[in-house]
Amino acid sequence: MDAATGSSQAGRSRWPLGSRRRLGAALTMLLLLVVGVGWVLCSPSGGSPDDDYHLGSIWCPRPVAESCQTKTIDNVTQVLVPQTIDDDSLCYKKHPETSAACRMSYSDETTAYTARYDDGNYPVGYYRFHHALVGSDVTRSVILMRVVNVLIAVALLGTIALLSPPALRAGYIAAVGFAWIPMGVYFVASNNPSSWALTGVLAYASGLFMSLRAEGKRQWLLLGLGVVGSVLACMSRGDAAFFLFVVSLALLLGVRWRRQIRVHALVAAVVGFAGVWVMRSTGQGGYASGEGAQPPPMTRTRLFEIVQGVPQFLAGMYGRRWGGGWWDVPMDGVITIGALSLAGIALFMGVRVMTWRKLLSAGVILGALAGMPVVYAILNGLPNVYVMVQPRYVLPLLAVFYLVLFLTDDSRTMMTRTQAMLVVVVSTAVSSAAVHRLLLRYTQGIEDINRVPFNLDVGVQWWWNIPISPMQLWALVTACTLLASTMLVWLVGGGRSRPVERETPAASAAPTAESPAAA
User: Fold this and answer.
1) Tell me, what's the pLDDT at 515?
2) Where is this region: Disordered (predicted)?
3) What's the whole-model pTM score?
């Protein structure tokens, strides 16, 4: 008996709970990387929205005369790029019934002139960074860029999770999952600048929010990681840079002012105004503000038509109407129904306890999410919010909205273990269905969305030159998603959010919090 007890104690000393959790965290990060790479391989080169434009901008970043051979055709400066990233090679674009097999007739050795490149509409940082990854093999370069985007997201956001106060990790992880499945993950694993916009805005918001709760060295490390996120956002898109201002405003409205947060407030102010400057310095700034537009007179009928389109626009962040690819990978049906069901769960979880500060912070984010497309439509004379405006433009704010709702001063658990596992199962099913739909779209084409085959290996017309079939990739991504999600539930204690300092509920008293509303 003594020997057995000694052996048991020795085993516990060799594998204490802290060590097991560190090992579990490392394994979870690895699983998330595998999932991300799986999403990378779901789409061919050029498969994301406007990829001909973004890949052309990566191959020929500004100033284009220094990075590529140029030629003036019909008074338009065009750049010389490999034929495989030219618009003509996207032969399957907006034809869901056509697989990506038609791309196989194009060659990296052949070049073509194109006018599809950035000439000042976007920040140049994202394109210059990825230009360093350009090689002679276009396919390998495209995959490498996507994998690097996944690595950046997992490393940056994962490090923030590890450094964050344990009481806040469950809410942070839940915010990412509820907001990013499926479309957020899809864009992070793409060549689109929205990848850095999603990662950067969330990293800035979470790093800033978490640092106000952390102590000692971790406080400054989290703040530093938040600044890194702001740099990514400013290098990606003008609207993402502006979202830094929105996040900063939400934070400053959601905290009680005191001497200890002066550094955080200064960082928030500097980053916020820098974001506005970046937006105004790009072509997106004038476009978003309606410069040069002649909007029709505002009437109640026109305003009603614009406002009633907002719910559909917000649902587009989960794939409704705006699916993957060039909007030619339909996500409607079980995918969007499942994702929107999760969104409903998240909303009810988040509003179970409200404080005035939390309400102010959430209101700022929600106002940007729903209000910006409305203002855009009004200023640019558009008939509704989903003409020329895509939900992915505001998608970076969705995780921040959930973050504000979940990081609450409430002593109750976010979810029971059973509820957490139900969310894991549903989110895994949504992710699995989205991956299956993407693979089917590009390997075979989709003739009828209501009649799709299960076996992706039958009738394959296009696939990468890799030793794994489409069906095997789907099974691997699904299994790793389920394992990673389950591990995350275990790591944060089954969905529990440990009690932290309370704030007086809005319904009963004025705010007295010493902490951010989102915390």
Assistant:
1) 41
2) 498-519
3) 0.89
